[in-house]
Amino acid sequence: MVDISKDELRSMKIQLAKLQLESKLRSNLTTELDKQKQRARIAEDIAKSKSEQIENIAKQLSKYLSPQLYNSIFSGEKKAKIESEKKFLSIFFSDIVSFTTISDDMNSKSLTDMLNTYLSEMSDIALSYGGTIDKYIGDAIMIFFGDPKTAGIKKDAVSCIRMAMEMLSKLKVIKKKWRDQGISDKLSIRIGIHSDICTVGNFGSKDRLDYTVLGNGVNLASRLEGLADSNSILISENTYNIIKDEITCK
């Protein structure tokens, strides 16, 4: 039997108490770390969910904006505020000849399918040439070159003309789809193009803005489209003087 003095017993009790305290602290620390990890996981899940929601909303918004404008806004290059500036642009207008008469004889589904096919094909061509799609007005399309990005006055105008030429070629292809839907293959489009200094920017109220182009140049492009022959491109003298060395006109 080992004799233990009072001092030794007291020292052992102190050591035991220290060990018990350290063990408790380690246990509490482990529990707290587990809680923090759990909070971090919850915060990460919430952040991921919010990010997915924002991404989904952004994708939905992108359908209402031209890709160039959408990218400029989300990159911070352009702000959602009322402002405008003067720029030299090439303006494009097109529409389907006698569309109102044709649409009156079609049911809503056939009309929707036909128009969406046409607008999708024309829009893909516009984007491939770098055009900024301003808006759809029923069957009409308004596109401009030179903002928010520009390749230079001449290259912008040439791209606009070549885009219009490819649209006419593509129309011949999609007419077959229209015939398959029972739509007359006599459908045609007319195109007007003018190049000029215009005012481009955000217009509207503090609650709702429209990024568009204003000015006599826009009005002239629209009038040229209305005067164009079926399946033809009517350009202004301004545009002709810019592109005449690149594209043959008559």
How does this model look, in words?
With 250 residues, the protein is α+β, with helices and mostly antiparallel strands. 56% of the residues lie in helices and 21% in strands. The protein is built from 7 helices and 6 strands, in the order ααβααββαββαβα. Strands 1, 2, 3, 4, 5 and 6 form a 6-stranded mixed β-sheet that branches. It is elongated and about 120 Å long. The model has no long low-confidence stretch (mean pLDDT 82).
Oligomer: single chain
The separation of the N and C termini measures 123 Å
Share of helix, binned = 55-70%
**Average pLDDT:** 82
Radius of gyration: 33 Å
| Beta fraction | 15-25%
**How does the overall form come out from the CA principal axes?**
elongated
Specify the number of helices. 7
Order of helices and strands: HHEHHEEHEEHEH
Unreliable sequence segments: none
Tell me the number of strands: 6
Which sheet architecture does the biggest sheet show?
6 strands, mixed
What structural category characterises the helix and strand content? alpha+beta
Keywords:
250 residues; 7 helices; six-stranded mixed beta sheet; 56% helix; elongated
Describe this structure in a few short sentences.
By secondary structure, the chain is of the alpha+beta class.
Topology:
Layout (H helix, E strand, L loop, with lengths): L5 H57 L4 H8 L8 E14 L2 H6 L3 H21 L3 E6 L2 E6 L7 H28 L8 E16 L4 E6 L1 H12 L4 E4 L1 H7 L7
Parallel strand pairs: 4-6
Antiparallel strand pairs: 1-3, 1-4, 2-3, 4-5
